[in-house]
Amino acid sequence: MEPAGKTVVTVTKRQENIRRGIYILPNLITAGSLFAGFYSMIETLSGNYGSAAVWIFISAICDGLDGKVARLTGTTSQFGVEFDSLADLVAFGVTPGLMMYAWALKPFGRLGWLAAFLFVVCGALRLARFNVQVETVESKRFVGLPIPAAASMVASTVLLFNHFGWPSSYKRLAILALIYLLAFLMVSSVKYYSFKDPELIKRQPFGFLVLAVVLLIIVAAEPAVMVFVIMLCYVLSGPIGFLVGLPRRMRLEKAMHKGHEEQTHSS
Questions:
Q1: Domains and their CATH numbers in the chain
Q2: N or C terminus of the chain with fewer C-beta within 10 Å?
Q3: How far is CA 65 from CA 84, 121, 132, 151, in A?
């Protein structure tokens, strides 16, 4: 149990840090992410689901920028971390949950809004676990599907269905299955690439630039389809990587168990 004196000192230090001021630029970008998520809810209530989906992507872009700006400018702070988590819960938890319910899950009645709530609560649990494990988990990997990626997957699905004009009976079943999958992946221990590898911003072979340009052209040609494909590939990359690495992990565990038994017998 932490001593009371230490707690008072920690709280006092935090209060003093806030009195000295907060960093404007990264927190302003976080506020922009929160604004985009809130405006997406406004569009959802107006029945403009395609626009609501686009605003979720805008929120995701802002969410990706605030942390990078804070690290590049040396303006990271505990206040910014907490503000970012609260903004993420609204923009990528409550907003897509409301959009899914209004767009596809409302005909299911109680089961519909419970499914939407499952997405929200799993997103909140994912954020809480991330904040607790941020110092102990490698930066190159996320444990569980990141909540911005889950929200972006939902938004890309809305854009895909609107693009092809598929009937409402299809989207109801698809979203119901999708929401349970995303909720499970967010609270799972499946690892996802975080794109925080410093090697990404270093010199790369010329072919990488050509590939990136070709990818941008394909996305620009069919944005609704390609964004959905990219997000689906990322969502499935975690389970596929887990299954591919499963035999290796089983062999390691078997070898460790065998070594432990031999050590026990020898002693």
A1: 9-266 (1.20.120.1760)
A2: N
A3: 11, 25, 22, 17
